[in-house]
Amino acid sequence: MTDPNDLRTKGERTRTRVLGASHVARAKARSGAFDAPFQELLTDAAWGHVWSRPDIPARERSMITIALLAALGHWNELAMHVRATRNTGASPEDIREALLHVAIYAGIPAANRAFEVARDALAELSAPAEEGENP
C-alpha cells in the first residue's frame, strides 16, 4: 500500500512539473476549507497515482488526456492541458493528431470545438507574456 504522504508529495511534484508552478499556486490560493478535500483527491489520484506512473511518458499521457477532455467536452480543462504541453513535450502536431482521433471516435462537433479551444490555447503560448505575468 502506498503511503498517502508519499503519494501527495509525488502528486504535487508531478502536477507542478506538468501544469507549472504558477498554475498550481493559483489553484491552491483559490482553494479553501470547502474544496480542500477535492484538491487533495485530485493531487493524490490524478497526479500521484496516474500521471506519476512510469509506463507512459508525459508526452503520450498529455495526448491521451487532451483527447479524452475533448471527447467529453471539458473545454476549460482541455485548454489548460493544451497549455501544459509546453511542459510535457507534446507538440502542436501531436495535439492535432489526438484531435483527429476525437473527430473519428467521438464525433465531428466535439473535434470542431476542440480544435478551436486548442488553437486559442496554442496562440496564448506563442503570444509574448505581459509584464509581470508568469505563465
Attribute tags:
135 residues; mainly alpha; AhpD-like; 2 domains; 7 helices; 76% helix; disordered C terminus
Number of helices: 7
Percentage of residues in strands: under 5%
CATH-derived topology of the largest domain: AhpD-like
Shape: globular
CATH domain class of the largest domain? Mainly Alpha
Mean pLDDT, to the nearest integer, reads 92
Helix content: over 70%
**Whole-number radius of gyration?**
15 Å
Number of strands: 0
Terminal CA distance:
36 Å
Instruction: Please trace the helix and strand order, writing H or E for each element.
Output: HHHHHHH
Determine the CATH superfamily of the largest domain. Answer: AhpD-like
| Structural class estimated from helices and strands | mainly alpha
Low-confidence regions: 131-135
* Count of distinct structural domains: 2
Major beta sheet summary: none
The CATH architecture assignment of the largest domain turns out to be Up-down Bundle
